[in-house]
Specification:
Elements: H1 4-28, E1 60-65, E2 68-72, H2 75-85, E3 89-90, E4 94-97, H3 102-110, E5 114-124, H4 125-128, E6 133-134, E7 143-150, H5 154-157, E8 159-166, E9 171-178, H6 182-190, E10 197-204, E11 207-213, E12 217-225, E13 227-228, H7 231-238, E14 246-251, E15 254-258, E16 263-267, E17 272-276, H8 288-301, E18 308-315, E19 320-327, E20 330-334, E21 342-347, E22 352-358, E23 360-361, E24 367-375, H9 378-388, E25 397-406, E26 409-420, E27 423-427, E28 435-439
Parallel strand pairs: 3-6, 20-25
Antiparallel strand pairs: 1-2, 1-5, 2-10, 4-9, 5-7, 7-8, 8-9, 10-11, 12-24, 12-26, 13-23, 14-15, 15-16, 16-17, 17-22, 18-19, 19-20, 19-21, 21-22, 25-26, 26-27, 27-28
Organism: Solibacillus merdavium
Pfam family, one: YycH
Domain Regulatory protein YycH: 5-433
Length: 440
């Protein structure tokens, strides 16, 4: 037993040395890590992205010169005018009136040397600052439905007067813009108006006037091949984890896509999809400018404006924003309550709650047939409405648009429509007799 202590000492020394060796090995060990590549999330696009001003467009330009009206819906004319708007910097916005009568508002539009832009819905000034640069530190939280450009003093002081009129709230704002090249503006924007379609004002007792074409309208009936956008692309857009989404075919014309929290239904007959994310539902108030901007950004992030879609309606309380499809400057309306010619969003709690839209596009290369058609004048339409419809006083607008039908192809029939409370009614007074349909 006399060697026990020596053995213990040797064993302890060995263990200490072994511990030191392991420690040194750990300190000096360099593992061969492989290069970890950052996972790339594929960006899914269904169309080209657009600028905000592309959807903030009016449905009509109405010029007043020498006590006469001239109007146009031409996209090229509108784009030319917008190219000027975007270069202007205005003075401070002044509130002029907060209780305008219908007669006063009619008078503002009727004044000579003015062009009026007609918008379908109240447009927040804060959002329109993407089109016109306001020289104002605090843009008021107001909105407008008519933008009037007054060039009556342009040649004397190189200034345009801009009037922002809200026909619903009866409010008027005013500002001024300095024009660098007045001759160019008059030559390119104002002088061509005398060649546009002559319009007439339809005055109504204690109501806002209507403005319609004085002469018959030469238009075109179009037939287009259907260009479909795959719903699977939208599956990758609207769902946060597309790989776990399950697809079920419920019927011949109905598909259903689901994950744990959201649902997308696809109407394959009418080519409409409807996505909803119930957890995002919210009743928290959202300012109109934020609601419009959030809606636009959501759709535009995946190139969702697959045509000439224009901001057309907003329900602030329900957080709903709508964009109407246009072609050749005219709105396209359908007889289906599922609104296959509108993109509709409902905003929720910091994200989309509902997204409803068509999944087709109308492109010029898809045109297969066209046929010239003459529509009766606006004056004849007004006379027809007066004689057949007791609700003439309730009409907000009378416009020409396309009546949309689809089967194996898209058929776009030029027609007259009346608009009341964002609901349209298709009328054909010329020879077929009467009201055909009326839906939102």
């Amino acid at each position: 037993m006399k060697y026990v202590e020596q053995v213990k000492s040797i064993l302890l020394t060995f263990l200490v040395l072994l511990s030191i060796i392991f420690t040194l090995l750990i300190w000096n060990y360099k593992p061969d890590y492989g290069l970890i590549e950052e996972t790339q999330i594929e960006e899914v696009m269904v169309g080209q992205q657009k600028e905000l001003n592309d959807v903030l467009k009016p449905y009509r330009l109405l010029y007043r010169q020498n006590d006469e009206f001239f109007g146009t819906v031409s996209p090229s004319v509108l784009n030319e005018l917008y190219s000027y708007l975007r270069t202007w910097e205005t003075s401070e916005l002044d509130l002029i009136n907060t209780n305008l009568s219908d007669e006063k508002m009619n008078g503002i539009i009727r004044t000579n040397n003015r062009v009026t832009m007609f918008f379908n819905e109240e447009l927040p000034l804060q959002v329109f600052s993407n089109v016109v640069s306001f020289n104002d530190k605090a843009i008021p939280g107001a909105s407008f439905t008519r933008l009037i450009l007054d060039w009556s003093t342009l040649e004397t002081n190189n200034q345009l007067q801009l009037l922002f009129l809200n026909t619903e709230k009866r409010i008027l704002y005013r500002t001024y813009a300095d024009i660098v090249n007045t001759d160019k503006f008059l030559t390119e924007v104002i002088e061509p108006a005398k060649d546009y379609s002559p319009y007439v004002e339809i005055e109504r007792d204690s109501l806002r006037s209507l403005y319609v074409s004085k002469n018959p309208i030469q238009s075109t009936r179009y037939t287009y091949l259907i260009q479909e956008i795959s719903p699977n692309l939208f599956k990758s857009i609207v769902f946060t984890q597309p790989k776990i989404v399950q697809r079920n075919i419920e019927s011949e014309y109905s598909d259903r896509y689901t994950d744990d929290t959201s649902l997308m239904t696809v109407d394959t007959k009418n080519r409409i999809l409807n996505y909803v994310y119930p957890p995002a539902e919210s009743i928290v108030p959202i300012p109109s400018s934020k609601l419009l901007k959030d809606s636009f950004d959501y759709i535009n992030d995946h190139g969702g404006f697959t045509g000439d879609y224009r901001f057309s309606s907003m329900n602030i309380e329900k957080h709903i924003t709508e964009y109407q499809l246009f072609l050749h400057g005219l709105p396209i309306y359908s007889n289906m309550t599922t609104t296959p010619t509108r993109i509709i969003t409902t905003w929720g709690e910091n994200r989309i709650f509902r997204y409803r839209r068509p999944y087709y596009s109308i492109a010029t290369e898809g045109e297969v047939y066209r046929e010239q058609k003459e529509l009766v004048s606006g004056e004849e339409v007004i006379e027809y409405i007066r004689n057949t419809d007791d609700s003439f006083k309730d009409i907000d607008e009378v416009v020409v648009g396309y009546y949309f039908a689809q089967d194996e192809a898209f058929i776009l029939e030029p027609s007259w429509f009346t608009i009341s409370n964002n609901e349209w009614t298709h009328i054909s007074p010329e020879r077929t007799g009467g009201i055909i349909d009326g839906l939102e």
